[in-house]
Specification:
The chain is built from 7 helices and 8 strands. By secondary structure, it is an alpha/beta fold. Strands 3-2-4-5-1-6-7-8 form an 8-stranded mixed sheet, with helices on both faces. It starts with 15 loop residues before the first strand and ends in a 13-residue tail after the last strand.
Length: 211
Amino acid sequence: MLAERAPLPDIVTGPAVFAGEDACLTVALLMGLRGVRPGHPLLIVDGANAFDPFLISDLARKSGMAPQILLDQIRISRVFTCHQLEALLQGRLADAVRRFSAGAVYFSGILDPLLDEDVPTAEAGRIFRLIPPVLRALAAARVVTVCACPPPVTMPGRERLFPALCELAPWVFEVVSEGEHPQIRVTCRKPAAATWTWEPQIGLIAPRRWW
């Protein structure tokens, strides 16, 4: 669908985790968009508050399509609290996947709601335990499943959340920008070590975070 493609393997099975700098949000989005087909949109669970319609419009124009065509292939659910994330994980997301026949699900900042200092550590851990079965179910249904973890990925008392997410994912990537006119270095940590370099032809390498 898109002319702009991050240099990643053509086949990524199971949940994939992208971490590193904020540019990981863009690389993960591009991976999620690979799963989009006519009638099978991308569902975005936006815990990072980072959905950027200007970035989407730029991607569409670079691919010679009207921005609205690409935007119409995306359904977004903004997640501002850990309990909104919990509600999605406990059934609302599965309902949306069925209703829209989603081709892909992209969790933007899947850990962000759990790293809120106002959320008790035990509560964050309880909600985190809902994540693995949801990711496995999506992968089993052949839904492209992508998680982005922009910084920070941890806080005192929650040091195990990010490593646990990486342990359950068959694919883990680290994303770093380099140079004055940034190149993006994508390093695969799992299942096998590999590194790719990407020179984006888009204006925004990292989406705006709408704090």
